[in-house]
Task: inverse folding
């Protein structure tokens, strides 16, 4: 490796990876998954030097194991169960599950992760951290990027302390961070120098800085139910929320709404689920329209929205978060998960990179979301079938009202 190791702890990932993996470990060990990397930016070129470094960093990742202190920390999280932690004592990333290729002519990077879902799913955040840091360290003068990031962080902290920003948020930035060392600085300073940062999704930094680790579940958790034969496509939210509630018994209860559109989600977010879950998370579509829709849904069931959480997490900066907070603060509990704007705000544009679940047991799966163009599916025929299934149920429920 030309660079220092990027991943030095298997806790250096989002909490929701452990949350989802625990459900899979207890209920769905028969599922196999296949994940694909995508860079959404135009004109991004990965060089042979970057490619070789990425592979060396993946090799190093797969040499890591959980330490006793790390396992004990996971046990201290109230909803992580001991049998799952004992499984993690034995688990480690398996190199053969990751395949990488580089198109020398275009500079396009291909990364595919495939294997048992409980193992393959864990690679996503580690790989994004590796790819992003390698790209920025080898493509730019890192010290120039760092100075611009420091200046912007100083300004953000001043604006919290002078009252420009008044909302509470969690740092969600590990997947597209400038570097591990810079995210460490960001998390430490935001927590120590403001009263507004309530925690981080990064489990390693939560442990290191004695902060609250924060996270629920991601789109892949709902997507995986599309690959289970016995579950109709338009009812995957129902089965996902049911399994989640049964696993956590009402704890860790923030539901993600937009995997196959929020309108469909709300059909399954019935009186029971509304009462079982403490709140919902927004990740696509107009956030103001979404918040109004969720509040109306709570009121329909006679639930006071002020007792429920609206968690916003879609490509936020602090100005956007403040506007949302001002709009909803007197009508619901409001919080934010803010990622790249915290961990990779520099003089250069951040990468918009993802690694998405595309197959379960050989069957295609997809995310529709509430924003056109955010779909990622390698099978257009399946994607269209999923759209029709969702539209059919929404239309039928509308007629039956």
Result:
């Amino acid at each position: 490796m030309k660079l220092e190791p990027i991943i030095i702890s298997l806790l250096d990932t989002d909490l929701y990876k452990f949350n989802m993996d625990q459900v899979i470990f207890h209920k769905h060990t028969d599922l196999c998954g296949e994940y694909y990397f995508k860079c959404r930016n135009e004109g991004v070129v990965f060089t042979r030097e970057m490619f070789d470094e990425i592979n060396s960093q993946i090799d190093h990742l797969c040499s890591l194991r959980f330490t006793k202190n790390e396992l004990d920390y996971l046990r201290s999280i109230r909803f992580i169960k001991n049998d799952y932690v004992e499984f993690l004592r034995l688990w480690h990333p398996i190199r053969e599950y990751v395949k990488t290729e580089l198109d020398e002519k275009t500079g396009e990077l291909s990364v595919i992760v495939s294997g048992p879902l409980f193992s393959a799913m864990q690679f996503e955040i580690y790989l994004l951290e590796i790819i992003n840091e390698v790209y920025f360290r080898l493509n730019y003068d890192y010290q120039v990027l760092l100075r611009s990031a420091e200046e912007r962080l100083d300004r953000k902290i001043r604006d919290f302390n002078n009252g420009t920003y008044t909302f509470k948020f969690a740092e969600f930035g590990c997947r597209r961070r400038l570097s591990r060392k810079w995210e460490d600085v960001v998390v430490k300073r935001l927590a120590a120098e403001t009263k507004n940062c309530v925690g981080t999704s990064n489990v390693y930094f939560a442990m290191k800085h004695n902060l609250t680790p924060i996270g629920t579940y991601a789109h892949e958790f709902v997507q995986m139910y599309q690959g289970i034969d016995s579950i109709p496509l338009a009812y995957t939210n129902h089965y996902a929320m049911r399994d989640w509630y049964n696993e956590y018994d009402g704890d860790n209860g923030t539901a993600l709404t937009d995997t196959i559109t929020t309108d469909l989600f709300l059909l399954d977010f019935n009186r029971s689920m509304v009462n079982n879950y403490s709140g919902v998370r927004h990740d696509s579509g107009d956030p103001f329209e979404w918040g109004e829709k969720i509040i109306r849904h709570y009121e329909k069931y006679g639930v006071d929205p002020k007792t429920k959480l609206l968690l916003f997490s879609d490509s936020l900066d602090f100005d956007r978060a403040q506007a949302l907070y001002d709009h909803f603060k007197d009508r619901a509990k409001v919080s934010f998960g803010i990622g790249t704007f915290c961990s990779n705000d520099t003089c250069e544009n951040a990468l918009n990179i993802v690694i998405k679940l595309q197959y379960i047991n050989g069957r295609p799966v997809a995310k529709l979301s509430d924003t056109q163009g955010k779909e990622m599916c390698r099978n257009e025929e399946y994607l269209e079938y999923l759209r029709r299934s969702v539209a059919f149920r929404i239309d039928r429920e509308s007629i039956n009202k």
